């Protein structure tokens, strides 16, 4: 894992939170994208080497709203950039980590992604992501 690629933040409404984060970060949202497989709407901001990803549910009872019901709005996951996601999944599996899904799938922002199970990582949801060439 060579850097924090982005931090994912669960929000109730992108309409409210995009202007808030534009004000906070002093930069404009450069991309909005819906991830159909996850039913989430995302919005991205650049912050130096890393990014902020805002996540809003695109349906009422999806994963983001369930998260917000339990924990409130806030940090949802930390994403690490990896060069080879398959090798990294293998390395972490042999080290005893559990994955929510081991098969890399297409995420937002042109990435292959995998999520580790937060019960094995002190409650932090970890995303691995590899840029699609
Ligand atoms: Zn993410």
What's the arrangement of secondary structure elements?
Layout: E1 3-10, H1 14-25, E2 31-35, E3 40-47, E4 50-57, H2 63-71, E5 74-81, H3 85-94, E6 99-107, E7 111-116, E8 126-131
Parallel strand pairs: 1-4, 5-8
Antiparallel strand pairs: 1-5, 2-3, 3-4, 6-7, 7-8
Bound molecules: zinc ion.
Could you explain the architecture of this structure?
The structure is a single chain. The chain is of the alpha+beta class and 133 residues long. It contains three helices and eight strands, in the order βαβββαβαβββ. An eight-stranded mixed β-sheet has the order 2-3-4-1-5-8-7-6. The protein starts with a strand and ends with a strand. The structure holds zinc ion (ZN). The site of zinc ion has 6 residues, from strand 1 and strand 5.
Give a nutshell description of this structure:
The protein is of the alpha+beta class. It has helices at 14-25, 63-71, 85-94, and strands at residues 3-10, 31-35, 40-47, 50-57, 74-81, 99-107, 111-116, 126-131.
Name the helicity range: 10-25%
Structural class: alpha+beta
Q: What small molecules are bound in this structure?
A: zinc ion
Q: What would you call the shape?
A: globular
- In percent terms, what proportion of residues is strand? 35-45%
Strand order of the largest sheet: 2-3-4-1-5-8-7-6
* N- to C-terminal distance: 18 Å
Low-confidence stretches: none
């Amino acid at each position: 894992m060579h850097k924090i690629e982005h931090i994912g933040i669960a929000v109730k409404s992108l309409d409210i939170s995009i202007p808030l984060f534009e004000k906070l970060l002093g930069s404009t949202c450069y991309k909005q994208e819906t991830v159909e497989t996850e039913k989430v709407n995302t919005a991205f901001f650049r912050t130096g080497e890393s990014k902020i990803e805002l996540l809003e549910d695109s349906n009422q009872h999806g994963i983001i709203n369930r998260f917000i019901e339990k924990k409130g709005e806030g940090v949802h996951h930390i994403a690490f950039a990896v060069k080879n996601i398959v090798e990294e999944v293998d390395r972490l599996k042999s080290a005893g980590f559990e994955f929510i899904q081991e098969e890399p799938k297409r995420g937002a922002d042109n990435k292959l992604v995998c999520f580790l199970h937060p019960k094995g990582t002190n409650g932090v949801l970890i995303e691995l992501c590899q840029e699609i060439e």
